[in-house]
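User: Can you predict the 3D structure for this chain?
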Amino acid sequence: MPGTGITGTVTAGAGAGPDARGDGSGRSGIPAGAEATAARREGDRLRFVGAATRRIARGIDLDEIVLGLCRATVPTFSDAILVYLRDPLPVGDERPVGPVVLRLRRTDRLRPIDELGTGLELTGAAGGAGELDFSQLPLVGPQGDLPAAELCEIRPGGALAEVLRGVRPVFGDSAAARAALPELLGDEHPLPSGQRAVLAPLRGRRRVIGAAVFLRSPERPAFEPNDLLVAAQLATHTALGIDKAVLYGREAYIADELQRTMLPDSLPQPTGVRLASRYLPAAETARVGGDWYDAIPLPGSRVALVVGDVMGHSMTSAAIMGQLRTTAQTLAQLDLPPGEVLHHLDEQAQRLGSDRMATCLYAVYDPVSHRITIANAGHPPPVLLHLGGRAEVLRVPPGAPIGVGGVDFEAVELDAPAGATLLLYTDGLVESRLRDVWTGIEQLRERLATTAQLTGLDHPPPLEALCDDILDMLGPGDRDDDIALLAARFDGIAPSDVAYWFLDPEETAPGRARRFARRALSRWGLEELEDSVELLVSEVVTNAVRYAERPVTLRLLRTDVLRCEVGDDSPQLPRQRRARETDEGGRGLFLVNRLARRWGATRLSSGKVVWFEMSLPGGGRG
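Assistant: Here is the predicted structure, written as structure tokens:
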């Protein structure tokens, strides 16, 4: 029977209890025919309870569970149902503050035939004989037209509070229910005369979370004592399901938010490379995982590209992901080689616990040398889409996952030609129940090649559209795991836009730096910046020479801005301070802060780099 959870028809007298005072023709004083009827009704009742509880249990979230209760009971068990739940629903052990309020969550009812105009005859309910096929009657819900108050505040010590505290369902004509129902439904919504009702508290694991009212019209047989047991079973399964759904939903929400807040809000815009990313959470059955991606600007206009995947799906996985991502960012700022970064991540994972494992791929792109250095810790290999449309899976040593311990991570250095696109991803993109990881990687490679051919081989496909197209390859069964995707388009920096010098840490170094800078600016047609750049270069180089023991490096880069980088072997970072009028020095960084577009300092394993940027005249290249 559609909408009820039980097939077949319902006998008009199915709700009537057996006659316990027979004429003595059967055992226990019950006629043989009545005894068989009672046994059949009891069997029907047990089958109904089994089917109804299975239907309720199929629900995953709150709405599905409440809908399962309504559809399982109307019209087989009752003509209508009202479901009230606490607002807000308590979660776990939290103790609600303030008054307890019930909100009408859903109402379902069976419309009377005379309102529907269907031409059906109520031969079973009205005539007391025959059967009524409820599968021909439509249901009304979720709001229906049942008169009931939307909100109900439970008065401490009131009749409704006493019924709910008692937990067991009660008949609507009992003294307790006659006092409690007006409080629940509202005094302005009394039950129609002759309406039969059962009021059933919904009690979760720790407290009452609502109430359900089962209603039968006067044409239906009245509820009998065994129906209270049915109502109790339905209420118990519903309440426990709601409790579980609320706990699960809260945990999933917290885990999702935890993971999303740990992912970058936006990607940086480093020189010589364009970036795009995507993140898709796992399907509802798998929930949150530990996938992450990152792009970290490094000294020398380089950028670190990171993608990782913590094993498991839970808040613990998301929390470990956040710790490993933070560790990777810290290690990147030390400008450690990719293999050493993975080594330290491996040590950090072991400190977090013996079973804390993850895969990770760490790459450093240098736009000046057009090279990329990659180290892998058990992660799927990256795919490189060349400008001509050829897509290749890069041969990177796979390595062991992070957390195994005692493993060396080998790094490889590869060409990163201008116009090429590097794709880093987690295994959720290429592996599922329906395909193994290498089949998925080959499908990804073919997808990239096809997209490039459709776009045109003379120019690369748009980066954002490329990411969307990659995700379109996912089928219905390919969302077992969450997916992190990071795409990097290599533009590089032309050698003609780079000027590089070594300066001995001598008193003459600032003067030589000014001359070198003036010569480069003249070659680039940026004479307008000569005075400002010479002043700032002199100040920064003077500060570097003061503490350096080895040659100081000076590099100028011309892109959409002019960038100056000065490196030395002293790890002490400069800090801006306000110089007094009597001080002879201390104004260098103050001038840099006032004249430069941006500036900063980064500590390296071999020292530090101080850099500043100047806007180009006219907003473009000279």
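The CA atoms of residues 565 and 611 lie 4 Å apart. Residues 1-28, 112-144, 579-585 have pLDDT under 50 and may be disordered.
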